[in-house]
Amino acid sequence: MRRDRKTTGPRRRAAARLAAVLTAGLLTTTLSVAPAAAEDPEQIAWNDLLPGLEQGYDPSSSDVCRSGRLKCVDAVIREMERRWKPLSSGCDHRAVFSLLYLRTTEAYREAVTTPGFFDDPAFLNHYDAVFASYYFEQEDLWYSGRRSEVAPAWRVAFETAEQRGATGSGDMLLGMHGHINRDLPFVLAEIGLVAPDGTSRKADHDRVYEFLNSSGQASVAEVARRYDPTIDDRDVPGTTLDQTAVFQVIQVWRERAWRNAERLVAARALGPAAYAAVAEEIEQTAGAEARTLAAATGNTTSPEGPAQRQAWCAEHHDDR
């Protein structure tokens, strides 16, 4: 569906701010660049896998996530489903990103089981689990009442969702932004940018975008059917951006995350103070951008408003 919208006054200014945030990574990036199906996943508890993630990647380990076995991806998907279902049935605005992330991980599982898609599938499975654990940690901190410990970008995203303060597109963008621009640099720096033989893991990192691009439209369409029909309008409410441009921005964000991970690794070699300075810069930049995103995609940019969105979800959250 498509609606004609005029962007005037405060909405025009909000659109300009959002466009600036979504494209800010492009300049930064440019300047910085001179058959396991037979196994039963139900036997694995997510919490039991966390120590293996903390110990790092080891392909010889008996721990399914530390060694990067496909069974680990199945455990991640099961945990995502467990978290998403009550959000969906309750029409919690977090359900937008939660479902999108679940469908993205399912698409990753399909890609990683395609022969030749990735150079090192086992490492990517470990990467997938560590990446998910960063999101789970932020979510758990927020809803256990330890909100002061939540990263600034995620604090904005969760608070906005809790207050029903953004459009569906806004909740989607805030989740993607927090996970890519805040979480991903730390994940990459933690798991390592190079293989044991010294070759860069950048090629596999970049290949992730291939399945994101191919699966993204269907995932967004499902999220729209369930929670907010304005999400899959070709334009992002309150802006002049369309969904194609948003997916291109995701590619830019992922590139910036890699470059920030390089900065973290280099700073770590210089000592704790240098690392802390780079980490704080990443945190504060992501937080500031999240605040701009939240302001630009607030419900004031949508004539339908939050009440209509809740009514839609109440009727359609079980749609496929």
Explain what you see.
- Residues 1-38 form the signal peptide.
- Residues 296-320 are annotated as: Disordered.
- Keywords: Signal.
- InterPro entries: DUF5995.
- There is one protein chain.
- By secondary structure, this protein is mainly α.
- The protein has one domain.
- 69% of the residues lie in helices and 0% in strands.
- The chain is built from eleven helices and no strands.
- It is globular and about 55 Å long.
Give me some keywords for this one.
single chain; 320 residues; mainly alpha; 11 helices; 69% helix; disordered N terminus
Total helical segments: 11
Which percent range describes the beta-strand content?
Answer: under 5%
Order of helices and strands: HHHHHHHHHHH
Amino- and carboxy-terminal Cα gap: 17 Å
Radius of gyration: 19 Å
Number of strands: 0
Low-confidence stretches: 1-15, 25-43
Instruction: Please give the largest β-sheet.
Output: none
How many discrete structural domains? 1
Helix content: 55-70%
